[in-house]
Each structure stands twice: as structure tokens, then as C-alpha cells.
Amino acid sequence: MRVSEKGQVTIPKHVREQAGIRPNSDVMIRLEGGRVIIEPVDGAESRSMRDRMERFLKELDKLEGTGDPTLGAEDVMRETRDRT
Fold this sequence. Notes:
The protein is of the alpha+beta class. It is 43% helix and 14% strand. The protein has helices spanning 13-19, 43-63, 73-80, and strands at 27-32, 35-40. It starts with 12 loop residues before the first helix and ends with a helix.
């Protein structure tokens, strides 16, 4: 099997069937011990992940421009170390 220039690969039909991966379904791809794992994502879990990501991005948008550009990484680390 060859990976295209876009990073795409076709999963053989018999592998998709055995894994329960249906057309237009969502899959999760992760690295585990140096191996690439591709598995189906349950529809409810997929929606939940999208909803969480949407909420996270909205909160992140609220923070845009609120930081202090004069602070460097070491300053931030010093301020956040050993806080309980």
C-alpha cells in the first residue's frame, strides 16, 4: 500500500468490515508503541468530542489579546511554579 502525497491511504474493504468502519464514519488515529492505530469512533463519542472542542475554541477566542506581551516563557514559568 502506498501513501499519497496528501497523506491518504485506502483501508482495504475486508479490514474496514472487520474493524466496523463504515463509509462516512469517523475514525480515531493515534500512535501507540510506534504503531499507527485506526479505529472507529462511536457516533455519540464523536459528537461529544466535537462539542467539547467547539466549547474549548470559543473559550480560547475569549482569551485572544488578553496576555501580557512583555512576559517571556521564563516569567510565566516562574509565576506558575509551586502553586497549590
